[in-house]
Amino acid sequence: VQLQASGGGLVQAGNSLTLSCAASGQTLTTYHMGWFRQAPGKEREFVAGITWIGHLAYYADSVKGRFTISRDNGKNTVYLQMNSLKPEDTAVYFCAAQSRDGSGTYRYSRANEYEYWGQGTLVTVSS
Tens digit of pLDDT for each residue in 82-97? Predict the structure, then answer.
């Protein structure tokens, strides 16, 4: 599956931005989906994850209450709605896909459990 992230840009603190991750090549219904980010000089970190059917979502503590992950399997697209943005949210944001396995376990925060990654989209939040 190929993933294309988009929607990044420059915004002022307190404003909102919505990222999109469009998939091609396969239907996303066979994948749990996650968003990660990497700030300059820092390691990639988990931001949010959503199960294949969208019934469960998980968030990093740093974004809980401000970010919302959602998916539209009919459009083969995953979204990350980001509200009340802060300068510390500045990073390159990546979407990623993790295959559903027989156990149904979704290891949402582990980057090495995701098999496919998008190219990243830069979000810059000015103070």
Answer: 999 999 999 999 999 9
